[in-house]
């Protein structure tokens, strides 16, 4: 087995060795997608109009986004010629730009039918905002992120880290490799659309859920959040996040504090549900008790107390502290490269690890200043390319999802979006994430559910039988847990050598931390993200699970790379992803460091944006996002509003309606859009036009409108119907498909019927 520390030599044994990627891009998302494929060994050529001036210091983000690539000046005709030799094309134009550049899939794949064409529009494939220039502030406005951030006043908040754009890049990279996997199996090319709105959908899937038949719970935007899931301040003024997402974890925390009496406060009455609504009497009473208690000891005392009790909790640290932490070092999270202009540059390392494959040693982009007739030598294809497929590329691939909560199950869900069949294996009590019913449905709606007790021999045998017919296993059990159950990685590999095993964890394999539990806000706190968002005020953790969702995307990318390599080697391997490694990736631009680099952005209370011309503004009937970046756009903004100073913008816009303001700014070429508010977000015309959501029916809640998909494939407009399933609902069907007779299925179930069977019995009795 290759250790992560030894897996950065690159060369012919990288997963994507020999793959040619043409990147026609200007946006950060497409450049990040290309970077990730370069990290996996692909030869990535980024077509540029103008080569960078070596006398001008590069933007930190650009140094990171373009690492491992060749930057080549290519005109329109040269791009068309290069496409003929490429395996993957990334293009990030708006719809109009795509048409004007003749880079639409149907125009290209006739000449290169084996091509995987990944279109990554900054916002969406159509609709009112589709032609806006790329800007993270605008994307978070139209995608619903800004309208969900914690706030003191009821107003949109600008994230200081462009997590939606980073996730967009990871999703695009995954789609590209999925297309390659599909080509190895059928010879056909594939066409994917991965938009900025798809990234917003992925990040917001567990939060943007609306009831059609009855109202459903929607999380609020208070900076205080809930007593079991929020920031607290210790006696030394330091902050920490208590991340006890489930009742069991919160009870464990109270036990460690010797304060179980809190549960019998009159306002709580022993009911955890009384702690689920911000501002309720129960929440206020518990907050008062815990705030008073935590103010009696320094932060280190509480961190030690909770660590001893295995309670997820983390102190708030800065980015600089995180970059040199033992957790980052143990995960080989940072690397150093030499840059021709900047000298020594420290930046995040590759965020995925493999047991057999190597990843490319990060290096600075190579600038090719002279044009060459062909950017790649001619080659003979080993497979005759079939006509582009109308199917999704992973159809016929089977995935076993034996994971809980969000990050790992989302990796399996992304594979389902690429066409894989996913079977979710749960223990008898179900995935603990079912405590959050709506979120569970949104993440798992494209799977079938099986219940197996791995503590019994029939349950373990059933898992092994599933694995023998599977291509991928995704799990996030504590290290060593599968071994103790007798179905560890070596056993699984022996039973199914072709199996790709994906392990998702909180801290990775970071020594003493490897077995510790952790959730998204733990890493927002540790990594400096929460401190940066809060600025000089209280640190703020975002409610959207950016670490979970991006870890899911990176885990899926690792699985896809391993599947692609399996097509050559015939054997599978292990893939590792973690929230800790993702936390480094998500702040790649901010953590890229060299002498003289500008300070990364920091926020503050209700942060409106980075500059007067680049922020959120209130109008008479709502909010708009304005992105007047650069001298020309700033001048246009002043001219549009008839003012001479940026300080006057707010007073002018507060007298106009949203539509009046947007029309005026559009007339003068200033990028701007409406900010999507929380209430009724899924009814937004722009999201509806881009088929952001669909309806899933649940026995308890009735019809639910929730996020539909995270990627679109080809011309296949068929909507994969989502579903809500009970624990083990599909057990009999799945095991019967493996050849199990009813008596043996009963043995696996331990003589107990699934919830679905019990309900059927009641209805027919």
Could you please describe the fold and organization of this structure?
One of its GO terms (molecular function) is transferase activity. Its EC number is 2.8.3.-. Belongs to the CoA-transferase III family. InterPro entries: CoA-transferase_III, CoA-Trfase_fam_III, CoA-Trfase_III_dom3_sf, CoA-Trfase_III_dom_1_sf. This is CoA transferase. The structure is a single chain. The chain is of the alpha/beta class and 765 residues long. Among the domains are: 246-311, no CATH class; 614-674, no CATH class; 681-708, no CATH class. It is 35% helix and 15% strand. It is built from 30 helices and 26 strands. An 8-stranded mixed β-sheet has the order 14-3-2-1-4-5-6-26, with helices on both faces. A 7-stranded mixed β-sheet has the order 13-20-19-18-15-16-17, sandwiched between helices. A 3-stranded antiparallel β-sheet has the order 7-25-24. Strand 1, helix 1 (28-39) and strand 2 (43-48) form a beta-alpha-beta unit. Helix 7 (163-186) crosses helix 8 (196-204), helix 7 runs parallel beside helix 21 and helix 14 (407-417) packs across helix 21. Residues 1-10 and 757-765 have low confidence and may be disordered.
Keywords:
single chain; 765 residues; alpha/beta; 8-stranded mixed sheet; 26 strands; 15% strand; disordered N terminus; CoA-Trfase_fam_III; CoA-Trfase_III_dom3_sf; transferase activity
């Amino acid at each position: 087995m290759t250790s992560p520390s030894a897996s950065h030599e690159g060369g012919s044994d990288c997963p994507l060795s020999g793959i040619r990627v043409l990147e026609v891009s200007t946006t950060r998302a497409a450049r990040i997608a290309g970077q990730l494929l370069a990290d996996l060994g692909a030869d990535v050529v980024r077509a540029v109009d103008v080569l960078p001036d070596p006398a001008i210091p590069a933007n930190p983000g650009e140094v990171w986004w373009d690492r491992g690539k060749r930057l080549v000046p290519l005109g329109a005709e040269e791009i068309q010629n290069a496409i003929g030799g490429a395996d993957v094309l990334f293009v990030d134009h708006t719809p109009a730009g795509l048409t004007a550049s003749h880079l639409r899939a149907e125009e290209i794949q006739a000449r290169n039918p084996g091509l995987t064409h990944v279109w990554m529009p900054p916002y969406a494939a159509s609709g009112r905002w589709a032609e806006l220039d790329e800007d993270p502030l605008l994307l978070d406005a139209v995608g619903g992120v800004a309208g969900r951030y914690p706030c003191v006043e009821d107003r949109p908040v600008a994230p200081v880290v462009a997590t939606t754009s980073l996730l967009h890049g990871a999703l695009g990279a995954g789609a590209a490799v999925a297309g390659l996997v599909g080509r190895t199996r059928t010879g056909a090319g594939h066409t994917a659309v991965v938009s900025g709105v798809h990234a917003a959908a992925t990040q917001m899937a567990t939060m943007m859920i609306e009831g059609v038949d009855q109202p459903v719970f929607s999380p609020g935007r208070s900076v205080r959040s809930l007593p079991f899931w929020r920031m607290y301040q210790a006696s030394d003024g330091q902050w920490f996040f208590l991340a006890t997402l489930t009742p069991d974890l919160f009870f464990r925390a109270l036990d460690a504090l010797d304060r179980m009496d809190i549960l019998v406060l009159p306002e709580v009455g022993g009911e955890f549900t009384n702690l689920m609504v911000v501002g309720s009497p129960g929440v206020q009473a518990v907050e008062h008790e815990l705030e008073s208690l935590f103010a009696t000891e320094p932060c280190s005392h509480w961190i030690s107390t909770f660590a001893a009790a295995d309670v997820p909790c983390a102190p708030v640290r800065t980015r600089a502290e995180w970059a040199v932490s033992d957790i980052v070092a143990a995960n080989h999270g940072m690397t150093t490269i030499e840059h021709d202009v900047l000298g020594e540059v420290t930046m995040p390392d590759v965020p995925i690890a493999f047991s057999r494959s190597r990843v490319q040693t990060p290096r600075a982009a190579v600038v090719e200043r002279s044009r060459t007739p062909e950017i790649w030598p001619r080659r003979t294809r080993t497979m005759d390319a079939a006509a582009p497929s109308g199917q999704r590329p992973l159809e016929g691939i089977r995935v076993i999802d034996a994971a809980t909560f969000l990050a790992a199950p989302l990796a399996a869900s992304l594979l389902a979006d690429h066409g894989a069949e996913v079977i979710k294996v749960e223990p008898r009590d179900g995935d603990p994430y079912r405590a959050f019913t709506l979120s569970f449905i949104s993440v798992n709606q494209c799977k079938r559910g099986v219940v197996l007790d791995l503590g019994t021999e029939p349950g373990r045998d059933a898992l092994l039988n599933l694995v023998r017919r599977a291509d991928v296993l995704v799990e996030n059990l504590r290290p060593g847990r599968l071994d103790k159950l007798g179905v560890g990685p070596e056993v699984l590999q022996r039973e199914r050598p072709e199996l790709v095993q994906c392990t998702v964890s909180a801290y990775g394999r970071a020594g003493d931390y490897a077995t510790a539990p952790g959730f998204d806000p733990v890493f927002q706190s540790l990594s400096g993200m929460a401190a940066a968002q809060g600025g000089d005020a209280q640190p703020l953790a975002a409610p959207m699970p950016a670490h979970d969702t991006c870890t899911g995307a990176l885990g899926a990318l690792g699985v896809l790379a391993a599947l692609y390599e399996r097509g050559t080697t015939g054997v599978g391997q292990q893939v590792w992803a973690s929230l800790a490694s993702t936390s480094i990736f998500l702040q790649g631009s901010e953590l890229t460091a060299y002498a003289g680099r500008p300070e990364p952005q920091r926020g503050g209370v209700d942060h409106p944006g980075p500059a007067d011309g680049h922020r959120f503004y209130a109008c008479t009937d709502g909010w708009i996002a304005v992105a007047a970046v650069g001298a020309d756009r700033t001048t246009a903004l002043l001219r549009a509003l008839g003012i001479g100073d940026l300080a006057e913008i707010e007073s002018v816009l507060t007298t106009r309606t949203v539509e009046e303001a947007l029309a005026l700014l559009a007339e003068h070429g200033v990028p701007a859009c409406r900010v999507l508010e929380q209430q009724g977000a899924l009814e937004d015309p722009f999201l509806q036009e881009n088929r952001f959501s669909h309806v899933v029916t649940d026995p308890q809640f009735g019809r639910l409108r929730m996020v539909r998909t995270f990627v679109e494939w080809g011309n296949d407009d068929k909507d994969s119907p989502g579903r809500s399933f009970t624990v083990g609902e599909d057990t009999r069907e799945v095991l019967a498909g493996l050849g199990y007779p009813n008596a043996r299925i009963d043995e696996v179930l331990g003589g107990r019927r699934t919830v679905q069977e019990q309900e059927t019995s009641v209805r027919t009795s």
